[in-house]
Amino acid sequence: MKSRTSGTAWRHANIGRLLNNAVRRFEGRVLELMSERGHDETRIAHVSLTRNLDVEGTRLTELARRASMSKQAMGELIDQCAELGLVDRIADPTDRRARIVRFTPTGRKWLDAFRDAVDIAEREMRAELGKARMDAILKGLAVYGAEFDTLDDPN
Known about the structure:
Number of helices: 7
CATH superfamily: Winged helix-like DNA-binding domain superfamily/Winged helix DNA-binding domain
Strand order of the largest sheet: 1-3-2
Structural class: mainly alpha
Shape: globular
Number of domains: 1
Low-confidence stretches: none
Largest sheet: 3 strands, antiparallel
Number of strands: 3
Mean pLDDT: 90
CATH topology: Arc Repressor Mutant, subunit A
Radius of gyration: 18 Å
């Protein structure tokens, strides 16, 4: 009898790969919708910053922790998004040595467009999968990943 891990089929059917494929498809669609609406300035890597940035602002170290990235890598994303005019850095009022990253007014408009693109992509996904499957996916993923949801702003 063959063990479950023999061969290579498991590499294509394991939950991690399936989730990653779904995320890549979903995020690709979101960026496609953003581009169609004139927001072709951002790349998928920038989503790691914007997805983890609280609307009122977040320290770089916290952003890196939330995104499971090094501070240096997150700093590069912040620099790129700052060059695009989406974020800026301000002094932390509680610690002048620290900086807080926050959305600029342009970044807030971008965030609104991003929300709209996510809504459209979710509706398309629901239409393809059906309400029952989509509801089950959302419930299951919310429970499974709850302890890793570190974004302060629930709205």
